[in-house]
């Protein structure tokens, strides 16, 4: 009997609250996806090349998991509260019929457990299916090849998903039960009608509203114009202003709406005034939830755009050469002439890279004169740091750099007489490259041995060796003849090898590089491969984009569910008003329209602020600390942003329509 | 009796709850008329069917059979927008628990039935002021229900029931949630409106005090009209009428055998 009732109640709850149930399933999928990250093909592969970084990432996962649990807890708490609130009369009846409180709570716990079990039964297979898909897709995209793929089913991931999920559900139920334990049967039976709390003073709410807007505007200003200095204090002030501004804005918003309603109500017809007052009351009583939801949505949008741009930026092929071979010229030639090697190689060329000769090492004005370059740098704002550390230690021969450009189908450098080009492997990090390029516009030049060499307006940044770990802060690409004069070691630094495009296309880059790597490993020659480059590249893609997108989606779901549930809770608490309205002559359709309008406005109030804040946040993000890497195709970024935005809009529409349908059903059930 | 004087005719009204063995007959074929300008009280024990009767007239319940004719129109068959039009426009309803929307100001509550029928508060401002003055609620028009006393709330509710000049005002235990002082104020006001505006009021009540303001009282028992009292308004004071009501109530309590 007891368990029959538990099953029946649980089924009723699921049916009546599909929105929440669906969100739970999504949360489970998200948990499993996160926790099984270590089992993904890409990650398994990365462990072999970037074990240290992967280990660090995997150590980070529990923290991300805990953060997600924390947020999912709120989702579960609100949903359970919504469900128990709507059953207060039933609880009162149980108590009056002689059911012990402990038995009632036991019943609630079993119901929760049963519902958890069902959502897990749906969520986990869906999650396994999804992670397999992601695993295969990423493997395909990054060129890992899917031959080695095997079905992965992570038991620890399932254990932690189930464990975390059940614990969160139980904890939420426990807190709710504490509250229920203090409620008298009479309060249960006469639930619902509570006095409205529209009592905040006009002056107080106006003040909160104005302060909120001012703080938000100030935060926007800081974000858009002051963040590029990357000053931690600015960042702190921005975060504080943004958060307090949002809270204060929503605190004062109810009063602001109230004044608008008062102004318009003499001319309102139908349920206009009622609709507006319902929204206002909701805003007044739920202003904290609204602020939290709005901030969560902001975080969601910022996380997802950051994740996508990171993934996109890093995966834009910065591949320039696949292997760099070091050592004896003859030995290298022998290897390259081997048939099995030759059939994979597209091109090979010596790379001339050297430190400056000792005589040019000291900054004697006659030897190396930076003054015109410095002058050009000074004309650009924000170059103080660069000026302080200005030093160029390396030189690259023009012909060998041109070979490299040719191999990746880029336009070659064509230095004129008395011209140099500037190279930096750090051009894509932050502002550095952009500032240098700007300064090159101002007729930058370097004097060598008293002769002035103008610097070409383009800054070059394609990696000159296969291993990305070698970085060159600043180097000069000089004509071969000048290289001979300036170089400390005029012989070739290494021999670069590029693989044939058709082989890369056929096998995927990673497989192709691995295969060649295997061949070279036997020869005993010293070499660097692009593998570690791919590894790092992938690692950034996976860790930065995967985690942030994961968090973004989680925040998005939670924010929407919280807004939806908050609305539905209020509607249920004010159910009697709709009965009164019906007596006063409002038809069911009219009331349903009012309810839909309320939901629309309620969601819009949260979304508008979140959207404006996100636009500023994303703008400041991409103009300050996470500049899009040079070479990222702006069209791709725009297309992806539109797709993401459409995804958000679509999900929003789905959420809003589910809430509308639930609300409409409740109104119709009044008759 | 001239049919023009009859504002409401109830004919053979029955209402049955449940089916088969569980059938309960709440109204067993009640027939009566209400005259224009009448202040009709309906009294009876709990479960006698008085609230069911009121709810049928208010269209909150659909009768099982019989007719309810308001100003010549049978309202028991109304549906959809016709029903919505009837509610709030043709009838005003006064609840025991006031049922004011507590997130709307008094003024907004009062004008709600009007705006539902396309009339704005601006257009009705004169009526609002008149009613507010009559019911002594001018000072609370811009307050929310949470900021008013129970008596003020019920008078605001009364204003809401009267604002659209309905043909009849239905009141379900309007003094049920008020103390004696506020009950008296409310009944004085309702009685004045009945007399001055010739407004027809039909009131269900338990309270003999409140009932003594009526011009006629119908006693209902077990779904049938059981007794009727008429007050001779010119000769009989409310106090005398009260004594008569109490006497009938005592007889009702003692069983039908004692009633003449």
Describe the structure.
- The complex is a heterodimer of chains A (671) and B (260).
- Chain A is an alpha+beta fold.
- Chain A is built from 25 helices and 11 strands.
- In chain A, the strands form 2 sheets. In chain A, strands 3-5-9-6-8-7-4 form a 7-stranded mixed sheet. A 4-stranded antiparallel sheet of chain A has the order 2-10-1-11, with helices on both faces.
- In chain A, α2 (18-35) crosses α6 (101-141).
- The longest helix of chain A has 43 residues, at 531-573.
- Chain B has 260 residues and is α/β, with parallel strands linked by helices.
- Chain B has a single domain, classed as Rossmann fold.
- The interface between A and B is large, with 33 and 39 residues.
Q: Categorize the overall geometry of chain B.
A: globular
**Tally of discrete structural domains of chain A:** 3
Greatest contact between two chains: A-B, 33 and 39 residues
Largest sheet features of chain A: 7 strands, mixed
Residue fraction in strands of chain A: 5-15%
Describe the structure using short key phrases.
heterodimer; A: 671 residues; alpha+beta; 3 domains; seven-stranded mixed β-sheet; four-stranded antiparallel β-sheet; 68% helix; elongated; B: 260 residues; alpha/beta; Rossmann fold; six-stranded mixed β-sheet; 8 helices; 10 strands; 34% helix
């Amino acid at each position: 009997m007891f368990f029959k009732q538990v099953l029946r109640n649980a089924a009723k709850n699921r049916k009546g609250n599909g929105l929440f149930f669906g969100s739970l399933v999504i949360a489970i999928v998200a948990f499993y996806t996160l926790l099984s990250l270590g089992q993904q093909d890409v990650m398994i592969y990365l462990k072999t090349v970037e074990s240290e970084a992967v280990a660090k990432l995997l150590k980070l996962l529990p923290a991300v998991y805990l953060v997600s649990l924390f947020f999912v807890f709120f989702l579960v708490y609100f949903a359970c509260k919504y469900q128990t609130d709507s059953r207060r009369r039933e609880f009162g009846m149980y108590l009056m019929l002689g059911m012990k409180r402990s038995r009632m709570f036991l019943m609630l716990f079993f119901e929760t457990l049963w519902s958890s079990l069902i959502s897990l039964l749906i969520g986990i297979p869906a999650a396994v299916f999804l992670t397999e898909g992601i695993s295969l897709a990423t493997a395909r995209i990054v060129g890992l090849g899917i031959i080695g793929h095997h079905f992965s089913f992570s038991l620890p991931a399932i254990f932690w998903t189930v464990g975390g999920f059940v614990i969160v559900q139980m904890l939420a139920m426990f807190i709710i039960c504490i509250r229920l334990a203090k409620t008298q049967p009479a309060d249960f039976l006469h639930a619902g009608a509570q006095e409205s709390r529209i009592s905040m003073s006009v002056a107080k709410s106006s003040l909160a509203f104005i302060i909120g807007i001012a703080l938000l505007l100030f935060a926007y200003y800081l974000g858009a114009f002051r963040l590029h200095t990357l000053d931690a204090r600015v960042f702190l002030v921005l975060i504080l202003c943004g958060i307090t501004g949002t809270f204060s804005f929503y605190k004062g918003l109810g009063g602001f709406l109230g004044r608008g309603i008062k102004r318009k109500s003499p001319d309102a017809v139908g349920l206009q005034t009622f609709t507006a007052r319902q929204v206002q009351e909701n805003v007044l009583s739920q202003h904290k939830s609204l602020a939290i939801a709005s901030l969560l949505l902001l975080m969601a949008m910022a996380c997802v755009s950051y994740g996508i741009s990171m993934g996109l930026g890093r995966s834009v092929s910065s591949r320039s050469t696949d292997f760099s071979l070091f050592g004896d010229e003859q030995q290298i030639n022998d290897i390259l002439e081997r048939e099995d090697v030759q059939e994979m190689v597209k091109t090979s060329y010596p790379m001339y890279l050297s430190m400056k000769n000792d005589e040019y090492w000291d900054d004697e004005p006659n030897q190396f004169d930076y003054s015109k370059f410095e002058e050009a740098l000074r004309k650009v704002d924000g170059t103080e740091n660069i000026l302080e550390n200005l030093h160029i230690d390396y030189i690259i021969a023009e012909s060998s750099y041109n070979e490299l450009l040719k191999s990746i189908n880029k336009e070659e450098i064509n230095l004129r007489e008395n011209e140099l080009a500037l190279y930096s492997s750090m051009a894509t990090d932050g502002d550095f490259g952009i500032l240098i390029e700007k300064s090159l516009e101002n007729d930058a030049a370097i004097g060598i041995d008293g002769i002035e060499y103008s610097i070409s307006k383009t800054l070059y940044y394609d990696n000159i060796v296969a291993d990305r770990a070698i970085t060159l802060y600043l180097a000069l690409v000089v004509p071969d003849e000048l290289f001979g004069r300036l170089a400390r070691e005029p012989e070739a630094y290494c021999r670069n090898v590029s693989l044939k495009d058709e082989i890369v296309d056929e096998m995927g880059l990673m497989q192709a590089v691995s295969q060649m790597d295997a061949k070279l490993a036997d020869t005993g020659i010293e070499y660097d491969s692009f593998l570690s480059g791919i590894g790092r590249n992938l690692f950034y893609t996976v860790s930065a984009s995967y985690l942030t997108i994961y968090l973004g989606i989680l925040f998005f779901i939670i924010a929407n569910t919280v807004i939806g549930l908050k609305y539905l809770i209020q509607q249920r608490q004010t159910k009697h008003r709709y009965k009164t309205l019906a007596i006063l002559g409002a038809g069911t359709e009219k009331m349903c329209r009012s309810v839909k309008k309320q939901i629309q406005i309620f969601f819009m109030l949260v979304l508008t602020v979140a959207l404006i804040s996100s636009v500023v946040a994303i703008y400041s993000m991409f103009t300050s600390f996470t500049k899009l890497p040079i070479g990222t195709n702006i069209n791709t970024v725009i297309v992806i942003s539109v797709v993401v935005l459409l995804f958000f809009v679509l999900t929003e529409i789905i959420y809003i329509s589910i809430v509308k349908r639930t609300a409409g059903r409740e109104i119709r059930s009044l008759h | 009796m001239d049919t023009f004087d009859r504002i409401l005719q109830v004919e053979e009204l029955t209402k049955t709850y449940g089916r088969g063995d569980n059938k309960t007959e709440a109204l067993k074929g009640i027939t009566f008329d209400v005259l224009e300008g009448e202040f009709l009280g309906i009294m009876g024990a709990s479960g006698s069917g008085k609230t069911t009767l009121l709810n049928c007239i208010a269209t909150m319940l659909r009768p099982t059979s019989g007719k309810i004719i308001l100003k010549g129109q049978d309202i028991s068959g109304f549906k959809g927008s016709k029903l919505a039009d009837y509610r709030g426009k043709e009838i005003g309803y006064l609840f025991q628990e006031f049922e004011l929307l507590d997130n709307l100001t008094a003024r907004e509550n009062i004008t709600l039935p009007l705006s539902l029928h396309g009339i704005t508060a601006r257009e009705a401002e004169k009526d609002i002021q008149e009613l507010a003055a009559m019911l002594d609620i001018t000072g609370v028009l811009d307050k929310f229900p949470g900021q008013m006393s129970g008596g003020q709330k019920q008078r605001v509710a009364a204003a809401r029931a009267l604002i659209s000049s309905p043909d009849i005002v239905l009141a379900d235990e309007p003094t049920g949630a008020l103390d004696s002082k506020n009950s008296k104020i409310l009944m004085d006001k309702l009685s004045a409106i009945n007399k001055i505006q010739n407004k027809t009021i039909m009131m269900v009540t338990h309270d003999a005090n409140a009932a003594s303001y009526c011009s006629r009282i119908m006693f209902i028992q077990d779904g049938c009209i059981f007794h009727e009292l008429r007050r001779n308004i010119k000769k009989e004071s409310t106090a005398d009428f009260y004594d008569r009501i109490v006497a009938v109530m005592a007889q009702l309590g003692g069983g039908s055998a004692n009633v003449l």
